[in-house]
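User: Can you recover a sequence for this backbone? Please restate the input before giving your answer.

Assistant: Of course. Working from this structure:
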């Protein structure tokens, strides 16, 4: 692959593009006030089947970003009417700090180009390309940026989700719960902690694989029942549900309904056995307080639910 004339680079890009083209390609937002420049870039990108969204100003670009969360790559010209490209990059990085967007800045200006490059990179652009640029170089850089963003999204997802059930993990839950609680700081919020009763016995009697099926089934039920709420697998056979703006009695009723639903469920563990399980649930209701604080109160209630006979809700 590695040759002196840079063939390595070209082959790499072609190989990666081939790999990407089998997947879904994210749209590229092309921001340039010149229709001719936009069309040139669009022709290059279309060769590689990138879906394109066009904007002729920073303001228009921001509208597109707001409307289309699937945008992953932006090509931004510096000289724009109104807000310039550099300001747009700063704004995007500020406004969408946790959104994975690859930004490639471009400019036809020769004077002060070194400083402009530095300013762009400092402001959060991933790359800078002076105009006019070569077709291959442009698409290679877009490819690189796409690959980096895709890898980032994959890592983000792996770091926030549990492999067995596909539910969020405790780390993500804690962070996301705090963010949601911030928006509900003047009302009653509840958090439930749910634990399968005698799950060790299920594993011992029916095997670990059957236990895994039980966990997946319960997760699917949680995700379906509480699709509007943040929930997570926070331990081996422990799950948490955040109920922002929901007071103690409503939370108890909600959770007791779920407890009864689970009690009535026959779980097919795929070897002829139909299992029944029960769950114990602890609920914390407060106004104010962090997710971790609510978590530990809910855990105390769960403990009391276990002590007082299991298959019940304690708040
Ligand atoms: P309690 O009613 O007091 O909660 O009793 P328990 O048996 O459910 O509680 P305990 O904490 O003693 O046991 C939890 C069991 O959960 C032990 C462990 O083997 C099982 N477990 C944890 N993670 C997994 C998993 O990913 N798959 C399977 N199959 N079992 C798991
Ligand atoms: Mg321009
Ligand atoms: Mg447990
Ligand atoms: Mg248990």
């Amino acid at each position: 692959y590695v040759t002196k004339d840079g063939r390595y680079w070209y082959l790499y890009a072609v190989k990666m593009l081939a790999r990407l083209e089998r997947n879904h390609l994210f749209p590229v937002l092309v921001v340039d006030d010149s229709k001719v420049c936009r069309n040139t870039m669009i022709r290059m990108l279309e060769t590689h089947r990138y879906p394109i969204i066009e904007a002729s100003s920073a303001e228009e670009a921001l509208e597109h970003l707001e409307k289309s969360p699937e945008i992953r790559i932006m090509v931004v010209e510096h000289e724009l009417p109104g807000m310039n490209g550099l300001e747009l990059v700063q704004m995007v990085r500020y406004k969408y700090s946790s959104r994975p967007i690859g930004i490639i800045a471009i400019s036809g200006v020769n004077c002060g180009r070194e400083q402009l490059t530095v300013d762009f990179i400092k402001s959060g652009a991933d790359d800078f390309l002076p105009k006019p640029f070569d077709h291959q170089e442009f698409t290679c850089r877009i490819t690189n940026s796409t690959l980096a963003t895709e890898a980032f999204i994959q890592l983000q997802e792996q770091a926030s989700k549990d492999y067995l059930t596909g539910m969020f993990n405790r780390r993500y839950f804690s962070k996301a719960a705090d963010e949601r609680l911030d928006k509900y700081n003047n009302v009653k919020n509840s958090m439930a902690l749910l634990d399968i009763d005698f799950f060790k016995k299920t594993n011992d009697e029916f095997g670990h694989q059957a236990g895994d099926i039980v966990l997946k089934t319960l997760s699917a039920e949680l995700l379906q029942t509480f699709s509007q709420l943040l929930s997570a697998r926070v331990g081996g056979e422990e799950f948490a549900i955040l109920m922002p703006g929901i007071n103690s009695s409503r939370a108890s009723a909600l959770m007791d309904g779920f407890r009864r639903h689970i009690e009535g469920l026959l779980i097919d563990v795929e070897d002829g056995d139909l299992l029944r399980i029960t769950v114990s649930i602890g609920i914390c209701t407060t106004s104010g307080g962090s997710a971790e604080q609510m978590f530990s109160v809910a855990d105390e209630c769960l403990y009391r639910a276990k002590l007082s006979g299991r298959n019940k809700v304690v708040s």
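That completes the design. Confidence is low (pLDDT under 50) at residues 1-6.
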